[in-house]
Amino acid sequence: MHKRLRIVACIAAIAFATAAVAHETKIKAIVVVHPWVLETEQTQVDLHVKIKNTGKVTERLLRASTLLADTALIVDAEGRDLKDLAIPGLGEITLLPGSVHIVLSGLKKALLPYDSFLLTLEFEKAGVVQVEVLVEEKTSDAWRLAPSIFSKHAASDLQGSVLATAYYAIASRH
Q1: Which helix (H) or strand (E) holds 36?
Q2: CA-CA distance, 35 to 27, in Å (whole number)?
Q3: Which helix (DSSP H) or strand (DSSP E) does residue 131 occupy?
Q4: What fold characterizes domain 24-146?
Q5: Do the beta carbons of residue 99 and residue 77 sit within 8 Å?
Q6: Tell me: the pLDDT tens digits for 61-71?
Q7: Is 172 in a helix, a strand, or coil?
Q8: Tens digits of per-residue pLDDT, 72-109?
Q9: What sections of the chain are H helices per DSSP?
Q10: What DSSP designation does 68 have?
């Protein structure tokens, strides 16, 4: 009986952790998936986020802003400022360093692990939306898995391997 209770508790904990990692915000045809930054004491940080467009027409991200930083610039892979960012109809774009992304400069405080802050995104058709940006630990797997963390298959593979490991660890004790 205790063994089953432990297994159920582990599964519930993993499900809760997965839900916390994959937060999203929807406005009209736009879905903003898990915006996050790495902890830093520097004055600049790169935003990681996936933006999905469930509509049939191209949407444009016009600007980003936050009270936490002096500027939030949309930049290309070389760091050059972009006027806007197109998200194709029925498509998605992943923003991360080494690709198109958002740079927050002039940070007004250190970003500590597990903190969060609000970021405002303005879209051409969908309008303005505020999203919660999570601050991840540099030691967490989030930054190492950045390209794959947005993949449903990678997330379910990771979740499956964690579940199997947890089950094996509990089952081997009895």
Answers
A1: strand 30-38
A2: 15
A3: strand 127-136
A4: Immunoglobulin-like (2.60.40)
A5: yes
A6: 999 999 999 99
A7: coil
A8: 999 999 999 999 999 999 999 999 999 999 999 999 99
A9: 2-21, 146-149, 152-171
A10: T
How far, in Å, CA of 102 to CA of 49, rounded?
A: 9
> In the structure, what pLDDT confidence band is assigned to residue 139 with cuts at 50, 70 and 90?
confident
What gap in Å lies between CA 96 and CA 48, rounded to an integer? 5
Structure tokens of 37?
A: 């930054």
Compute and round to an integer the Cα radius of gyration of the chain.
18
Give the position of tokens 């089953």.
4
pLDDT in tens, 19-33: 444 699 999 999 999
CA distance 74 to 89: 20
Length, in residues, of the chain: 174
**Sign of the alpha-carbon dihedral angle for 163, 157, 114, 116:** negative
Which single residue is written with the structure tokens 């405002």?
120
Burial of 65 (0-12, 13-18, 19+ CB in 10 A): middle
Distance CA 126, CA 62 (A): 11
Instruction: Report residue 160: phi and psi, to 5°.
Output: -60, -40
Confidence of residue 54 (pLDDT cuts 50, 70, 90): very high
DSSP β-ladder status, 92-95 and 59-65? unpaired
How many CB atoms neighbour CB 101 within 10 A?
Answer: 22
